[in-house]
Design a protein that fits this description.
The complex is a heterodimer of chains A (351) and B (341). Chain A has 351 residues and is α+β, with helices and mostly antiparallel strands. Chain A is built from eight helices and 21 strands. Chain A is elongated and about 75 Å long. Chain B is mainly alpha-helical and 341 residues long. Chain B has a domain of 226 residues: MetI-like fold (Orthogonal Bundle), CATH 1.10.3720. Chain B has 14 helices and four strands. In chain B, strands 1-4 form a two-stranded antiparallel ribbon. Chain B has a two-stranded antiparallel ribbon with strand order 2-3. In chain B, β2 and β3 form a beta hairpin. Chain B is extended, with a radius of gyration of 28 Å. The mean pLDDT of chain B is 88. Classes of the chains: A alpha+beta (351), B mainly alpha (341). At the A-B interface, β6 and α2 of A face α10 and α11 of B. Chain B: This is ABC transporter permease. Chain B: It is found in: Cell membrane. Chain B: It holds the Pfam family BPD_transp_1. Chain B: InterPro entries: ABC_transporter_permease, MetI-like, MetI-like_sf.
Amino acid sequence: MASIRLNGITKRWGKVTGVSHFDLEVADQEFIVFLGPSGCGKTTTMRMIAGLEDPSDGDILIGDTRVNNLDPKDRDVAMVFQSYGLYPNLTVYENIRFPLKVRKVDPTTHDDRVRKAADMVELDNLLHRFPRELSGGQRQRVALARAIVREPNVFLMDEPLSNLDAKLRVSTRAKIKHLQHTLKTTTIYVTHDQIEAMTLADRVVVMNKGKLQQLGTPKQIYDTPANTFVASFIGSPAMNLLSGRIEQGHFVAGDARIPAGDIQNEGDITLGFRAEDVEVTLDNDATLVAPVYSVELLGDATLVTLNIDGTLVAAKASKDFEVEMDQQVGFRLAPESCHWFDAHTGHRIDG
Amino acid sequence: MNRKTFYLFVGPSLIMMLVFIAAPLISVFIGSFYVTRSVYEDVTVESCTPGFTTQTCTTEVRRKPIIKDNGEVLTNTVFVGLDTYRTLLQPERVKRAFTQGQWLEPFRTIDFYKALRFTVMFTLITLPFVLVVGLSIAMAVNNCVRTLRGPIIFVSLLPFIITPVIGALSIRWLFIGDGLITRGLEQLTGQDISMFAQGWTIELLMLFYRVWHVAPFAFVIFYAGLQTVNQDTLDAATVDGASRWERLRYVIVPHLQPLIIFVTMIHLMDAYRVFEEVIGFSSEAHVISLQWLTFDYLTPDDSGNRAISRASASSMLTMVGIIIILIPVLRRTWREHRTGA
């Protein structure tokens, strides 16, 4: 069991910067998810923690030890990969035993530990098979068993569910959550899927272009996004962002005028609001009124999209809400569900 | 694909194989059981020399080839069964040597066993060197900076491109009595060095030459294979705690396994037919190979006869040797094929 500390780690390849001045403290037993679009540096950061990449700058500490100069095998971490990384010429049993074998762990304990690990991921009846005879989900469970068999200090998981189909992803996700809860091992998990991040994480690290965007619990990230990037990345659909300006206590964008509440600063500003915080009405006294751009039935709700001054904004109405295309529809927006962002830096402005 | 299209596609190559592979093979096989000889007749000749009173005349019986009307020697071909093979293999001499406990005697005195000993040894010794050197170069190139790879690949391929006899000759000239390297070594050690005076040094040079010549082929094949090693599996092995050597053993070599078998088979077939080295190093007096033996039988002797029958028998035996030496590899491949590995 160990905490992890990253002090200003940076990764550069020539002139390209993959990760820049990244700080993070992970508490012991915590489940941290790195979330971001592809190429944002999340996998690079994880590989630096594993020791598969050397940071150009900064310190990595696991427990109280600086591990920058340690080989991956001496860092006592285990890693799970997107494409499983199994040994195709070894059976499931030998795959799980591999870390014990190469680390010269006392051979008399191997069988017990392999069977225990296999049992935890329900692989006990597949031990004699070869990886090629397994489905994707089973292969990923082998990779999980191989990671837990050694009881390492830290789990690193690099998009472990990305190669699985949607249904399997949900059940394997639950398995990972349960495993981490049982083993209480500090875990860092990389994904570009916000649902995975929201469901698994104790805290989420949102990254973009090699920089930390926001660090917080899933609820904090969702309720108070730190900037427009986080706002537009988290949530399905993502938060609506409208560019406009403040005039006499009102937000103005095209024909729309919305009371700005506590926001005092005049000038350009970005308004954000979530689709589910909007009340969709056919009344004409609503905050935003415009002809319907599209209507999508999601099953549990209806998604109504309007075109406001060139920007598409969406709102969730009840599933019984019926409206024709091009019909005038109004969005009613409470001041407390409005998020304000600086028009230039994108940073959140708290009123 | 329907039957007609299938035959249209396969037909041409099938015919080519029949004409250029199967037919010669069968003719050599049949030829090894027949011997073609000139037909001789006994002619009684009386030759007289002038004497004082009478001529002195002697009559003698001479064997003379029958000359046909068109001036050619009359020949006939007779079936001799395994006689030619017996001439080559000399079973009685081998048996005698073995009963007298002189196990090595046949390998020194009978051409076929001399050639067999060298050929088998040459094949089996060069194989591991070719595989290891090829894999080492491939790994080295794979780990080196991208910009250097092109030139290094080009340079490592040169030995493979050079015509075999020329390559062998150039090595010979380097090591011959007053060759560059011999002179250098003599200066260094202060000893007289003659690499071509005894069999074993020649064999050493031959082994060296073959490995130098073929390793680039193995290198190219392995280098291509290395490009498809699963990077995730390598990383997983690194994090799992595998050393460089263990990663090679558990990840890279299993991945290259089919290619290793391929190179092994090609090399076994190739090395068993060793020939250029004997010619290039002019080693006939010390070291000969099976393929050279066949060549030697085919070379016309002083009276212009070629020992076609013995050449056929020796090439049949060479072929049998290749098949025997390939059996372990083929069996292994077949087993893996059946288990679907």
